[in-house]
Amino acid sequence: MKQSKSCIIPLLATGAAAQVVKPANFVPGVKWQIDIMASLDITKTLTPTDALVWDLDLYHLQRHPDIITTLRSKIPNVSIICYFNAGLAQPSDCDWDTVWQKPEYKSLLGNSYDPPFSEEKWINIRNTTAIDLLKNRVTTAANLGCDGVDPDNIDGYSADTGFNLNQQDYIKLMTTLATTAHGLKTKRGNTLLIGQKNAPELVSSLNSVLDFAVLEDCKNLRNEADRAFCADFQPYITQNKPVFSIEYPTSLRNKNSPQQCNTSGANSAQYTASCEIDSAVGGKRGNFKFSEILKLRDGADESEHGELNGCTQYCGQGQGKGVVVTPVNEEIDGDECKPVSKSFKLMAREFAA
């Protein structure tokens, strides 16, 4: 089976020019899918087969690395992005018991995240030992066969983490993780890519360092009092780096359907508002060339959270069309984590203040 060609793009990082080799189809507008709520069910047909970028949970893949093999056999030119939590640690992480719950590392964990995710604990990402532990997650992704990483929750500067973290702390973290990622080769011989998740305040510092972005609610359709931030990420598009955007229309949910997915799609008003995409730079929405999809939202209340399961509606095909329900198997999510070959060995060091 043919593999996609690769292209080389210059990257400015820590003041020096570097070369990032990425798949040729990893460009603005590429079709994608994201499912981090449950493991893919590889006993069934994996759709959509024309999505060339898949964003999947790192620890689902560590439990079931055959998901990567199967997905590549079905979509040979696919790029697999591995999602992990960079800002917090949680019991479902494969390194929770082996790392974060060890006595010498427990002090690196601070306050709980907001309900219903209170089991997640903020990480003191200012601490150099904590940064090394997060670098381990990047290396694990490369060793599993991921093509990139999607580090989440890098906006702890606006939360009560218990460590009084600021924007510069997260800029330093992401720059360090980018250096680690760009020093690794994927199993297909490209550079391990790394993206920015939300946190628009950091774009000016990170857009030349990172390789793509993943956004949620950038139009702020549910809370018009908040500032829309899609346009903040246009510097990625200008550099031919994809921006993957998610909107959460409540009408996409049907609680009586598999994965609670309304196969008729979001209603007309929500579909139109969610799927409007600028046709040129400088448009009113700021999302020119974004790869935009619709996913489930728990409810209309602002406190409700999105659900990134297999239910997806693709924009550009018209209201009532473009709905895909990617098969998942939640029953295997709690399986034992498998060891990863060539895993990164954490260097012992003193805790930094």
Walk me through the topology.
Elements: E1 6-13, E2 16-23, E3 32-35, E4 53-57, H1 58-63, H2 66-74, E5 79-85, E6 88-89, H3 96-100, E7 109-112, E8 121-123, H4 128-144, E9 148-152, H5 167-182, E10 193-197, H6 203-206, E11 212-216, H7 234-238, E12 243-247, H8 268-275, E13 291-294, E14 296-297, E15 306-307, E16 311-314, E17 323-325
Helix pairs in contact: 4-5
Report on the architecture of this protein.
The N and C termini lie far apart (52 Å). It is built from eight helices and 17 strands. The protein has a single domain (29-332), classed as Alpha-Beta Barrel (TIM Barrel). It has 353 residues and is of the alpha/beta class. α4 (128-144) packs parallel to α5. Strands 3-4-5-9-10-11-12-13-16-17 form a ten-stranded mixed beta sheet. A three-stranded antiparallel beta sheet has the order 6-8-7, with no helix packed on it. Strands 1-2 form a two-stranded antiparallel ribbon. The longest helix is centred in the middle third of the chain and has 17 residues, at 128-144. The relative contact order is 0.16.
In the CATH scheme, what's the topology name? TIM Barrel
Q: For the record, what CATH class applies?
A: Alpha Beta
| Total strands | 17
Helix content percent band: 10-25%
Spell out the helices and strands N to C: EEEEHHEEHEEHEHEHEHEHEEEEE
Q: Strand sequence of the main sheet, in spatial order? A: 3-4-5-9-10-11-12-13-16-17
Radius of gyration: 19 Å
In total, how many domains does the architecture comprise?
Answer: 1
> How is the biggest beta sheet arranged?
10 strands, mixed
Q: Number of helical runs?
A: 8
DSSP strand content: 15-25%
Q: Cα distance, first to last residue?
A: 52 Å
Pfam families: Glyco_hydro_114
Catalytic activity: Hydrolysis of terminal, non-reducing alpha-D-galactose residues in alpha-D-galactosides, including galactose oligosaccharides, galactomannans and galactolipids
Organism: Rhypophila decipiens
Signal peptide: 1-18
